[in-house]
Amino acid sequence: MSPKGCKRLAHLRYAVVVAVAFLFLATAAAGGDGGAGAGPEGWWIDYPDHHSKAGYPVDHPIWAMGPLEGKPVLILVHTANCPACKRQEAGVKKVLRDIGDGVVYVDVLADSDHQKAWDGLVSYDPTGNPRLVPLTVYLTLVPGPDGSQVAWRSAVGHQGDGLIRSILDDAIRLHARGSGSHDP
Predict the structure, then answer these.
(1) Total count of domains within the chain
(2) 21-35: per-residue pLDDT in tens?
(3) How far apart are CA 88 and CA 172, in angstroms?
(4) Whole-model pTM over 0.85
(5) Which of 50, 66, 97, 150 has its CA 20 to 30 A from that of 104?
């Protein structure tokens, strides 16, 4: 890559980090969990009512769907220097130590994997306005009219390990039913 191209890439990376930090601060000031509810009613098949694409099917990234066949998937889109991201990452890792290999963890560091982070934000921001990190996404399978279907939920900001654990426990239970590996 030419020196001019390297300089442009460095400026682009800086702009992405600044934009994400600004958006985090704006949302943190506004508060809110991005609309994720508790319990089975908090899982969505299509985009939820409070989303800008309400009622439309979700365009799940291929990298998120691959591991879902075997286990629920937890995706964390975050940056290295965001305080809420660090707290959410610590909570996720604490819960994952307890749950073990019951879920697949996809760690998406926006600082280094811009495209994957953008795909995750665009696909799974709970409002349809991809603006903040940390974004925590939970994917599972549920029984559908024609077999299994993908159910998801997401939240922006720090959730705490109690809520993460509760959602993942629900995802594991639902996945067992949705994948046919659980007797009804």
Answers:
(1) 1
(2) 434 433 333 333 333
(3) 20
(4) no
(5) 50
